[in-house]
Design brief:
677 residues; alpha/beta; Rossmann fold; six-stranded mixed β-sheet; 7% strand
């Protein structure tokens, strides 16, 4: 044992005499510095991940060479000379040959550098990890740039962006902003900090894409918006056949960088191959691109038609391609919603295509969302909620599913309604956001009775779309709901001065003048409203029955009656009755709220058919919760003047007020608990 120790001591002394220990220390310090420099420049220069591994290999090879050279050679005042064996060196003491002071200084400095760099990396990485862990794990994938000068190939870059976005959306631990929300930043002039603030996200993913022959190049970089710092970047050069693997790999790497947990089920969803036929996938990408154009601009009907054609071509190459089937289902929903709304076979094609898509992929979120919307509109609320929950299970960032659930709870649970609308707003910052803000603002005030919350939502909407006419209309509607009819008219006229074709404004003015007994002015606006809706029906919906066109006919009928046009009045009263009965028969969403029974009661009360009026009022009064606007309406509605003072009608008014007050108080407590009041 002593002999082994003695041999090791001799070897150690020889390493020191030949200055190998000094060389290793200095080399290690230089290597640490080189690695730090590579780490700093890799992302800005978009160097591939393999760069760091290559540098490490080269440095290891260099270390071996440095050790060998330092063992064989020595630097002396006379130059580089071969180190003599210990046996030939005279005056060698028992310990070791004294190293030069220069080597000692270099070794000491190198040791300090090594310790400092290790400490710096340890502290900075812990700080970075802690900072990321504390951040909201939210991300938006910005439109990818096409590296080649081929505009007709942009759909490929957009398809890659869309796929990565959808993969990230499947991770519950992330909040992912949808595709339509980022289109406004296709050619950004704003900093990433400003974009992050507008989208309300902590991270952005930028990318560039190119396809040449069977090869693709994808360059991506992950950016932390607050400090505009690069978190991670990489370049992928792959074969087109591996495109689905690349999409999955990128999404999972991003989730890892954001410290987002991925469950085994989510990983399986992300790694699923949508189709084995790349030609079908190419047509699907073209269809998705055109469909997105329509979602951004609903007047772009040509894009919708193109989307339908491309989805059909995709299915020609792969009839089992689930996403192409669900895409086609969404096209039918978008094309025929209003046109077929009061037909018995409303959206039958949509449900058939959704079921076909789910037959081939029973984890396809978008198909479940469409089924939820279908069941909701067709009077099957329990089935609708079941479908929305499935959609959210497979895509926790499906804003349409959250909105669908919110609309379901609008009938009897304003707190849940607000919660789900808030969730939809948090993941949709696109062209649908102003409508979502208007919707939640209406819940805050017209339903739950919190005017300041509503006003804030309307102001946020105004900042986004700059639509001052809509802003005045919303404020005017709120004044109408408070029975401030003169103030409502004042705001309605401001809106009318900006946009005299807005059908909602025309209806608002007609109703306000009617409530004030100014029937000539009322009829003027009702006529304009009706003509406007007829024009819209001819241009866009081409339907003998239209939900927007035929509702509120009794209001116009009342105005005609008060102006002496009895025959015309009866015509519109009959139209309203037919419309309400049709809605009830088909079980449409409006009928589920029981509001058609109120409208029927109003017509019958005005006509003096008291029994029919109360029969419908009793059904209407089965509603579990009530809205602020309904309190105003039933207390002031001129159609009920003939029975207003009767005990049963007065009791119904008290019931409506009590249900509203109970829900208002429940919402207030919840808002206070959320520190939102």
């Amino acid at each position: 044992m002593a002999q082994k120790t003695n041999s090791f001591e001799k070897f150690w002394k020889e390493l020191k005499r030949r200055k190998v220990v000094h060389v290793i220390t200095v080399y290690a310090a230089v290597a640490f510095v080189i690695m730090q420099v590579v780490d700093m420049v890799a992302e800005p220069l978009r160097l591939p991940d393999s760069t760091k591994a290559l540098v490490i290999v080269l440095l290891c090879i260099g270390l071996i060479i440095a050790i060998f050279v330092s063992w064989v050679y020595d630097i002396t005042p006379a130059g580089v000379k071969k180190t003599k064996p210990v046996s030939t060196v005279k005056h060698l003491d028992q310990t070791t040959t004294t190293a030069s002071s220069g080597w000692k200084i270099a070794t000491f400095v190198s040791a300090v550098i090594i310790v400092a760099l290790i400490a710096f990396n340890f502290i900075s990485r812990r700080t970075l990890n802690a900072d990321i862990s504390k951040l909201d794990k939210s991300i938006a994938v910005l439109p990818f740039k096409l590296l080649s000068d081929e505009p007709d190939k942009q759909y490929l870059a957009d398809g890659m962006m869309d796929a990565i976005t959808l993969h990230l959306s499947k991770i519950k631990d992330l909040r992912v902003i949808g595709r339509t929300s980022v289109e406004q930043y296709r050619n950004p002039t704003k900093t990433t900090t400003a974009i992050g603030r507008e989208l309300d996200v902590e991270f952005l993913l930028e990318g560039s894409f190119q396809k040449f022959g069977d090869n693709v190049k994808l360059i991506v970089q992950l950016i932390k918006t607050g400090k505009e710092g690069h978190v991670w970047a990489n370049e992928y050069d792959r074969n087109w056949r591996d495109i689905f693997k690349v999409q999955s790999e990128v999404a999972q790497r991003i989730a890892d960088e954001l410290h987002a947990a991925i469950t085994p089920e989510e990983k399986q969803l992300i790694e699923k191959t949508p189709t084995e036929n790349l030609t079908a996938y190419d047509f699907y990408q073209k269809g998705r691109e055109e469909h997105t154009k329509f979602w951004i601009d609903n007047n772009n009907r040509e894009a919708l038609e193109k989307a339908e054609d491309f989805y059909h071509e995709a299915l020609d190459y792969d009839s089992t391609f689930a996403k192409a089937n669900s895409g086609l289902a969404r096209v039918y929903w978008d094309k025929h919603f209003f046109k077929d709304y009061l037909l018995k076979n409303f959206q039958d094609s949509t449900i058939i295509l959704c079921d076909l898509a789910l037959l081939h992929d029973d984890q396809l979120s978008e198909a479940y969302t469409l089924k939820g919307l279908y069941y909701s509109e067709n009077g099957k609320p329990e089935q609708a909620i079941e479908e929305f929950d499935k959609a959210i299970k497979f895509n926790p960032n499906d804003w349409m599913a959250y909105r669908g659930k919110g609309e379901f709870y609008a009938r009897n649970d304003f707190v849940s309604n607000i919660k789900y609308l808030q969730k939809a707003i948090s993941i949709n910052r696109g062209p649908e956001l102003p409508d979502l803000l208007e919707e939640i603002g209406s819940v805050y005030f017209a339903d739950a009775g919190f005017p300041e919350k509503a006003k804030q939502s309307y102001q946020d909407k105004l900042k986004l779309d700059g639509d001052s006419a809509a802003y005045y209309y919303l404020l005017g509607s709120d004044e109408y709901n408070l029975s401030n009819f003169d103030r409502s008219i004042e705001l309605g006229l401001k809106c009318y001065a900006i946009d005299s074709t807005n059908d909602q404004t025309l209806l608002l003015l007609g109703e306000n003048y009617s409530w004030l007994g100014r029937h000539k002015e009322s009829l003027i606006y009702f006529k304009k409203w009706f003509e406007r809706l007829k024009t819209q029906g001819a241009l866009f919906m081409n339907s003998p029955f239209n939900a927007n066109l035929y509702n509120n006919m009794h209001r116009m009928g009342y105005s005609y009656w008060q102006n002496g046009y009895k025959e015309e009045a009866e015509y519109y009263f009959d139209d309203q009755i037919n419309y309400c009965n049709r809605m009830i028969e088909l079980g449409r969403l409006f009928a589920q709220s029981l509001f058609p029974y109120y409208d029927l009661a109003g017509v019958y009360a005005f006509r003096g058919e008291k029994d029919k009026a109360y029969k419908n009022l009793r059904i209407f009064n089965q509603r579990k919760t009530e809205c602020l606007w309904m309190v105003m309406l039933i207390k002031t509605d001129p159609l009920f003047n003939s029975i207003r003072n009767e005990p049963e009608f007065q009791q119904i008014i008290r019931d409506v007020e009590a249900k509203y007050q109970a829900e208002h108080e429940r919402v207030r407590k919840w808002l206070e608990g959320q520190r939102m009041l």
